[in-house]
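Students often ask what a 'structure token' actually looks like in practice. Rather than answer in the abstract, let us consider S-adenosyl-L-methionine-dependent methyltransferase, a protein of 453 residues. Its sequence is given first.
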Amino acid sequence: MPRLPPSLFWRASKEISPLAARLLPVCRDLQSAANELRWIREHVKSTQSPVPDGLRFWSLVEKRATGVPLQYVLGNQPFGDLDILCRRGVLIPRPETEAYTLHIANILTKSSSTPLNILDLCTGTGCIPLLLLHSLLASPSVAGPISLHGVDISPHAVRLARENLAHNIRLGLLPASIQGPNSSSLGSGNPSQNPNPYYTLKFTEQDIFSPSFLSSHFPSSQQPSTQPSTQSNPQPTSKDMPKNDLDLLISNPPYISSSAFTSRTTARAVRQHEPRLALVPDPISSLLTAYSRESSHSGGSSQKVYESCHPADVFYARLAEIVGMVRPKRVVMEVGGWGQAMRVVRGFVVDGWGSHNSFSTHNMSSGDGSGYESSESKSGSGSGSGSDGLLGSGRGQGEYEIEVWRDEPAGENDAKHWAVVDQREVAVRGRGLARVVYLVRRDCWEEDEGRKG
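Now compare that with the structural description of the same chain:
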């Protein structure tokens, strides 16, 4: 990071305030320092405290000057039309997350599904299901009911998510929902007893790597249909698994490797102040013991997938397994850039993530050669035979279509509209960097395409 010239500090002190000069090292320019100084002053004026306003203002500026993120200093962050409370120990919502949340909400408003069932894994502050709820309730085309469920391993995150639901109800940004005997049931309960019967929303603490996770949420996913077979000890395929009534599985999981987290590729403020638990997956070796307890169902395929995947990608391998068992209509997975997006795409389309039988890859037209080609795509090809994978062996042949969304998925496409992974074309939508890997079940994709036509 380049050093700031002394003249900039002089200008900040003279043109704005001496305190603005204190913020320059973290803000990096005069306008940002002036904005943050104003927001801190407005926060002090709008909140009550026994501490005198002047002293509180100075102390918050000093706190921010040490590098504490502004969201932790102020205690909140706008997210769409909502106000999300932020506290240390829980990841701060990002604008890119807001953009794709609004985009998938817009897609869901055009869906014919009713009721809508949504599951958010690694929910953090609860910002994703809360904004989805707000957007869906605002749409006249969604008749409800809407059922949302946010899951996180952190008890601090779950408490904050529940508080954010109550907070936005108090602000009038969300309609009141039923309140049970304790705060944990806020937003959940019997819809028929609900003063606003259009939704239920609950947040629960659970480890998605737990062997009991799937059976506790989707009992039917553990019971593959039995098909006559001449094979000895046959393994179920994704097609044998019953479909569940899950309209959307969405997740912003930890996706930074341990080495990247400790290097300069991760911002210092993130390393020092945001929770590592929400950013860095556990080592693969620590997950294999839990997965060995599930091997009777997966035939050992889970362990092989985890042993071979990139350290930053272990959550995507787990999400893929959940997708293969539950078969939701749509899946949104936030990723950390092009390299990871292409690895995740490759996991699905080449390595057979989410399927219980691997599948071969077939060559596809590479267009005019102007698309993005992942370097990972040249490192090998899928193994096995047959085409039982979730994404089949070619466009239009699998159960799911796959896309990559950029930071602004609703924006006009950048020049490159597709990526190539092992000579397979993958649609790329929007503007900016790769931000989401999106799966849509073929029946829903055909419905979406039919509306476009």
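One point worth highlighting: The first helix runs from residue 6 to 16. Ask yourself how you might have guessed this from the sequence alone, and why that guess would often be unreliable.
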